[in-house]
User: Which sequence fits this backbone?
């Protein structure tokens, strides 16, 4: 990737321009035509644009700060109906597929490179959508390429990542957003979802310290094929349309995303903080137990978390469905966790004959319904009433370490 000296968008503005649309287009589509990547600096200030930006080469766009540099897309016109972001990124095949006239944007010559806008970066600025907008144009950034977004605030819009065969929306968006990185991205008053990730080429994406303030529908909507990672993310505030803080679905059952220390601010209106319908790792969560839609045929579910009142507990909860380890009912579990601190629950046949007592016999598959380890207490088999010795403690530790890998039987 070759890029030259950073360009300053102010240098491309002409006194006859009605706003900054032409200046951005001159820099992104026309400047330094021999380079496959450009770096564009946007100094502090407000910049009004009337058309969306769809770079066809790698773009590094850097502002003077998320509180001081604002790109205001006012009464914005869409170049195409698929790439629904004020700034939309795609690889070359994305751009060829969805740009009706690839040689103009919409009237300018454009710089086309083999990678398209792959490996682009957006940092240190605010993107605001105001006035009228096309139907479905709800996102400040729309991404179907590998991109890095850092220290960005999105106002009246969200961030959408879609590539490959979609699950949430159905259909296909050509692109590859695998391994994208979003750090310190804040959305305020997103008109649809604050953050949405969808499709089998939108995997291995990391969200770090991202916040959804008053999303219109869902704060974090996860629908990738293989899963993504969310670290220290936050949802606060609701509208009359808000349904969930966090929602994850995947009818294919392959999504193994991780939510680490993600939380919701309390809202009396919103009772369903988490809606999880596939195997996840949720660590250090806050809100109601995240098990709303998990059903038969899904993968393992692992939950260490914080209950109401922020008491630290650990839960591994699974119910047998003939397909490995899944989450069962949490009605009883919440009470047990609040008092026991450490709780292991298994439906019939989910643990099978994994735990072994001191006499060398395995606990019956049918008998093992609930096993509970209290702080400082012995492990007991509620069905048989027998105390399990130290050897079984080690066996259970091994069970817990292997459950995520789906090992069906463990002998010690």
Assistant:
């Amino acid at each position: 990737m070759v890029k030259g000296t950073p360009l300053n968008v102010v240098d491309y503005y002409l006194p006859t321009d009605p706003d900054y649309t032409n200046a951005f287009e001159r820099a992104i589509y026309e400047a330094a035509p021999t380079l496959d990547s450009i770096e564009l600096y946007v100094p502090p200030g407000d910049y009004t644009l009337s058309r969306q930006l769809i770079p066809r080469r790698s773009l590094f766009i850097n502002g003077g700060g998320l509180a001081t540099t604002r790109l205001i897309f006012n009464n914005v016109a869409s170049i195409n109906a698929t790439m629904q972001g004020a700034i939309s990124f795609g690889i070359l095949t994305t751009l060829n597929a969805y740009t009706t006239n690839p040689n103009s944007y919409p009237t300018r010559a454009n710089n086309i490179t083999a990678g398209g806008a792959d490996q682009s970066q957006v940092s240190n600025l605010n993107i605001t959508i105001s006035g009228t907008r096309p139907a479905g144009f709800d996102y400040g950034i729309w991404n179907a390429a590998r991109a890095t977004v850092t220290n960005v605030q999105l106002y009246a819009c969200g961030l959408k990542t879609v590539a490959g065969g979609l699950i949430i929306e159905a259909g296909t968006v050509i692109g590859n957003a695998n391994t994208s990185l979003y750090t310190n991205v804040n959305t305020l008053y997103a008109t649809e979802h604050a953050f949405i990730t969808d499709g089998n080429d939108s995997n291995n994406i990391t969200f770090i310290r991202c916040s959804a303030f008053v999303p219109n529908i869902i704060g974090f909507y996860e629908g990738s094929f293989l899963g993504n990672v969310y670290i220290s993310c936050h949802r606060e505030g609701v509208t009359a349309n808000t349904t969930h803080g966090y929602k994850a679905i995947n009818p294919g059952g392959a999504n193994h995303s991780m939510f680490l220390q993600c939380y919701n601010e309390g809202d009396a209106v919103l009772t369903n903080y988490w809606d999880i319908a596939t195997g996840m790792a949720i660590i250090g969560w806050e809100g109601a137990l995240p098990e709303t839609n998990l059903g038969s045929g899904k993968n393992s579910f692992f939950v260490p978390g914080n209950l109401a009142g922020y008491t630290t507990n650990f839960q591994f909860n699974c119910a047998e469905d003939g397909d490995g380890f899944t989450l069962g009912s949490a009605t009883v579990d919440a009470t047990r966790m609040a008092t026991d601190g450490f709780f292991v629950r298994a439906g019939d046949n989910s643990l099978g004959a994994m735990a072994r007592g001191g006499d060398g016999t395995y606990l019956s598959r049918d008998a093992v319904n609930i096993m509970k380890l209290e702080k400082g207490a012995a492990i007991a088999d509620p069905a048989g009433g027998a105390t399990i010795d130290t050897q079984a403690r080690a066996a259970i530790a091994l069970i817990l370490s292997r459950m995520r890998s789906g090992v069906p039987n463990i002998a010690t």
Remarks:
- The longest strand covers residues 120-130.
